[in-house]
Design brief:
Layout (H helix, E strand, L loop, with lengths): L24 H18 L6 H7 L4 H5 L5 H21 L7 H17 L1 H16 L4 H9 L3 H12 L9 H18 L8 H24 L1
């Protein structure tokens, strides 16, 4: 009987490679893409190394030579998703004003999340963090990524005087990102990229109103 996770010939394709041959990057990519497909289709708990190996046309031993186990593989797969989102943001045309940079960043995020596969991946990652508090590395990754590019733009806006010096950046992040992620990931509803401008103006206007009220109370 064929061993679980082996190829039809019973041989590990990497073990039959020529001596000294470097690890195959294309196989790494196939494992990561298979893991992301399963994460989107079945959720975190539905990902198995057996199925990842089958979809990547490889074996479980090949996976274990790269990652300690399923959690480590999925952590790298989620990192890959974030890198791709960064690439989308970096590809946006340059803008002079901070408001326009924010609008274009949100527009890119909306376009990313219009992709059903990516939207399901992110929704299932968030669900896994809530369901499995022991996934602390995944939780730290997601928390560290919270608005990382947007935060940088807001901080630059404050330094350049385009945004108030006492701007509450954490609250501004919630106002800017909240509508996008709530609608796309919680409600699973489409959001038009053109909405990025309205969200930007309303969020920054709300911050101005709150800041003015705070200054009035402290007088």
């Amino acid at each position: 009987m064929r061993k679980e996770g082996s190829t039809k010939s019973g041989k590990d394709p990497e073990k039959t490679a020529r001596p000294g041959r470097p690890r195959r990057a294309d196989l790494d990519d196939r494992f990561l893409e298979a893991a992301l497909d399963l994460l989107a289709e079945r959720g975190y708990d539905g990902v198995s190394l057996e199925e990842v190996a089958r979809r990547a046309a490889s074996t479980r031993p090949s996976i274990y030579r790269r990652w300690k186990g399923r959690d480590a593989l999925l952590l790298d797969a989620v990192r890959l998703v974030f890198r791709r989102m960064d690439e989308t943001a970096a590809a946006a045309p340059p803008a002079e004003s901070v408001r326009e940079r924010i609008r274009r960043l949100l527009e890119g995020a909306i376009r990313d999340l219009r992709d059903p596969r990516r939207r399901r991946i992110m929704a299932n990652v968030i669900a896994a963090i809530h369901r499995h508090p022991e996934l602390d590395e995944l939780q730290r990754l997601v928390h560290a990524r919270r608005g990382v590019l947007l935060r940088r733009i807001l901080e630059q806006g404050v330094k350049r005087g385009e945004l108030p010096a006492d701007l509450d950046i954490e609250a501004a992040l919630d106002l800017l990102m909240g509508p996008v992620f709530y609608r796309c990931l919680v409600l699973d509803l489409p959001l038009d990229p053109d909405e990025a401008g309205r969200i930007t103006e309303q969020a920054l206007a709300a911050r101005r109103t709150e800041d003015e009220e705070t200054r009035e109370k402290t007088r």
